[in-house]
Design goal:
7 strands, alpha+beta, 170 residues, two-stranded antiparallel sheet, 29% helix, Peptide_deformylase, Peptide Deformylase, 4 helices
Length: 170
């Protein structure tokens, strides 16, 4: 396994909808392993394939330090809310370093998809895992969490990005 470069805000691949995965082979397993290592090295809890420049519908997650204790990958994820209860909390993104903002998401979701072997999988998730599923699936749809923010909060976040050293270095 090898860590990959995380694409940063402004890279067009982050606004690209990823394509369905149809081939479940060694290269997909390698991609998932590389993504987990990349996420771990960056200190994240989730990472979508387009964040490492690959436009395939797969994301990895690690909520093993939480009550859910889950770690792995979901291929071709589709989620729906379970109920109407929402959670609002700080959300950040490995592709937008150092920026976080209060973001509202559904508190509980049902997700289905496949594992890296192509086997069907599904789960009901709440809390951080539900937030992760929604955030990473947004990435696969070419949507950044900034687009989920209220207008005033988004304006402040975009100002912070423009003033950041990493944004001005590119």
């Amino acid at each position: 396994m090898s860590p990959r470069e995380i694409r940063i805000y402004g890279d067009p691949v982050l606004g690209t909808r990823a394509e369905e995965v149809t081939t479940f082979d060694a290269s997909l397993r390698t991609l998932a392993g590389d993504m987990l290592e990349t996420m771990d090295n960056a200190g994240g809890v989730g990472l979508a394939a387009n964040q490492v420049g690959i436009v395939k519908r797969i994301f990895v997650y690690d909520c093993s330090h939480t009550q859910s204790g889950l770690r792995g990958a979901i291929v071709n994820p589709v989620w729906t809310p379970v109920g109407t209860q929402e959670q609002t909390g700080p959300e950040g993104c490995l592709s937008i370093p150092g920026i976080s903002a209060e973001t509202t998401r559904y508190n509980q979701v049902f997700v289905s998809g496949q594992d890296i072997e192509g086997r069907p999988m599904s789960m009901v998730a709440s809390g951080l895992m539900a937030r992760c599923i929604q955030h990473e699936t947004d990435h696969l749809d070419g949507v950044l969490f900034l687009q989920r923010l209220e207008a005033a909060v988004r304006k402040d976040a975009l100002r912070a990005i423009r003033e950041s050293a990493w944004f001005n270095a590119s």
